[in-house]
Design a protein that fits this description.
Blueprint (H helix, E strand, L loop, with lengths): L12 H22 L9 H10 L3 E2 H8 L3 H13 L3 E5 L7 E5 L1 H4 L2 H15 L5 H16 L3
Antiparallel strand pairs: 1-3, 2-3
């Protein structure tokens, strides 16, 4: 790739990732408002994790994956539990273990999140062949797995 002739000029990969992240954040916020989804942009990661897990997840595991402190996650999960989008479940054998589970009400937004993600990916990769898009997804998945 001739980075010197790219739109963003000579820059490092981290700057490219940050730029794409900011673009997605703005796009996501716009789409959440347009679709009247009662989830804040900064909390979308919670729902993306819960949608991908498809079942309950232990609170401390959720905190680790989402990289949030337990106190911050407690506040966020309480908010969405009050809205009936998620529920907190205490472990029957050890009350210190709490599980987070998406509710039927919360699952109503899974299709929206998938559509939003797919539309953004389609726009972001519009200049790539299908083969390059698959290669990019593979590489990004490998990069993410290096951190979790």
């Amino acid at each position: 790739m001739d980075i010197k002739n790219s739109v963003i000029g000579e820059t490092c990969a981290i700057s490219i990732i940050r730029y794409i992240s900011e673009e997605f954040g703005e796009y996501l916020e716009k789409e959440l408002r347009r679709r009247k989804i009662p989830i804040q942009r900064k909390h979308a990661g919670l729902f993306m994790i819960l949608f991908s897990k498809g079942e309950k997840i232990e609170f401390k595991e959720l905190a680790r994956i989402w990289r949030k402190s337990k106190s911050t996650l407690c506040d966020i999960t309480s908010k969405y539990s009050d809205q009936k989008l998620i529920k907190k479940i205490n472990c029957c054998t050890d009350k210190r273990n709490v599980y987070i589970e998406i509710t039927e009400e919360g699952l109503r937004y899974k299709k929206d999140f998938n559509e939003i993600s797919e539309a953004f990916l389609k726009k972001a990769t519009s200049n790539l062949s299908d083969e390059k898009v698959e290669e990019l997804k593979f590489i990004l998945d490998k990069m993410i797995k290096a951190f979790i």
